[in-house]
Design a protein that fits this description.
CATH topology: Rossmann fold
Oligomer: single chain
CATH architecture: 3-Layer(aba) Sandwich
Strand order of the largest sheet: 1-4-3-2-5-6-13-12
Number of helices: 10
Bound molecules: S-adenosylmethionine
Structural class: alpha/beta
Helix content: 25-40%
Distance between the termini: 36 Å
CATH superfamily: Vaccinia Virus protein VP39
Number of strands: 13
Largest sheet: 8 strands, mixed
Mean pLDDT: 94
Low-confidence stretches: none
Radius of gyration: 20 Å
Strand content: 25-35%
CATH class: Alpha Beta
Shape: globular
Length: 329
């Protein structure tokens, strides 16, 4: 079975369109304009992100491929029965997970894969390509288009199977510390004692390596895509030619911060918000942040959010870690 479902936003939450509009207004009204990076991800944003992950200077994806390839046996040993759910939060194109899926199929595990992502194009393409490759196997796939927790709650309410939850890439790195902590606390409350979380963290490394990963044509295109999205979703008149992007590691916040700089004095009108937003020449608008972690910080984060660490899986250069967590007893 290969299917895709669009999730309804939970009863307490507002629609994705309203969340988008409210995040844009809030971010553009700040003295230091700042927009969250999840706004960039629609189908086209996912395609650009995928191209970034294939650049030689973008290290996290290559490191994570290496980790999953080298440790797929160890990851499979976390499964205690013959039936379980493989749940992936923010799956994107799921390319690293495919290595694990193939391994688990070869080892004859019966499992149901649930990729969850707000990007409908990413989920639809992933389910379609798995269907083309794995239709003769016993793999079951349900792609869920929507928010992490709307997806997770739907799956975990349905049964008592063991869950192996994947949260790969730099998705957690993009959250500030408070958001990361409350996200992980919520996740911990959703999981049971036999479930596992495999979570990726980009580790602190030479800032020169970080600079080249976040300063190239594709990364600029990815950040400028945010302006296209605001134009499309909210009827704005951003002109991408009036902005340039630059990313830099900030040792005070311990994050690579990516900014769009306005190259001139300009006013942008957003029709659906009925608002004008002014940009002075060379004023910045932060569009991305990627916090870099030490192992001590990862250990504190796990403890503070109710998890215990079972093991760290590293790449050969120790640039990245996929950490295996369980709900602490
Ligand atoms: C940094 S990308 C990582 C993609 C993939 N896991 C990888 O390792 O290449 C973050 C992904 O999370 C998705 N995402 C962001 N916020 C989300 C949310 N609230 N709910 C579900 N998916 C979300 C984005 O659409 C994007 O595909």
């Amino acid at each position: 079975m290969f299917e895709t479902k669009t999730l309804k936003a939970g009863s307490a939450s507002i629609s994705q369109e309203d969340q988008f509009a409210s995040a844009v207004h809030k971010g553009l009204s700040l003295d230091n304009k700042c927009l969250p990076s999840w706004l960039i991800f629609d189908s086209a944003g996912s395609v650009i992100f995928k191209a970034i992950t294939e650049l030689a200077e973008y290290l996290p994806a290559a490191c994570e491929f290496e980790i999953i390839r080298n440790h797929k046996n160890k990851i499979a040993k976390l499964i205690s029965g013959d039936k379980f759910n493989l749940i992936e939060l923010g799956s994107g194109d799921g390319c690293k997970t495919r290595i694990l899926i193939e391994h688990l199929l070869n080892e004859n595990f019966g499992f149901h894969y649930f990729p969850i992502d707000i990007s409908s194009g990413a989920v639809t393409n992933l389910v379609r390509s798995l269907e083309a490759e794995q239709q003769d196997t016993h793999l079951q796939v349900t792609g869920l288009i929507g928010d992490y927790f709307d997806g997770l709650n739907t799956i975990t309410q349905e049964g008592s199977k063991q869950n192996l939850v994947l949260f790969l890439g730099v998705t957690l790195n993009n959250m500030d510390r408070d958001t990361a902590r409350s996200f992980l606390k919520n996740l911990c409350e959703t999981l049971g004692p036999k479930d596992y979380l495999l979570i990726g963290f980009d580790l602190m490394k030479n800032p020169k390596l970080l600079y080249s990963a976040y300063n190239n044509q594709l990364f600029e295109k990815f950040n400028l895509h945010l302006l296209d999205r605001i134009n499309q979703m909210l009827g704005a008149n951003f002109n991408k030619n009036n902005f340039v992007q630059q990313g830099q590691y900030n040792p005070n916040t311990r994050a690579v911060e990516s900014y769009l700089y306005s190259t001139c004095n300009q006013t942008v009108h957003i029709k659906s918000l009925d608002e004008d937003y002014h940009f002075k020449a060379w004023e910045t608008m932060q569009t991305e942040q990627s916090f870099k972690f030490t192992l001590e910080e990862i250990e504190s984060l796990a403890t503070e959010s109710g998890f215990q660490i079972e093991e760290h899986l590293f790449d050969s250069q120790k640039y990245f870690v996929n950490s295996i967590w369980r709900v602490a007893p």
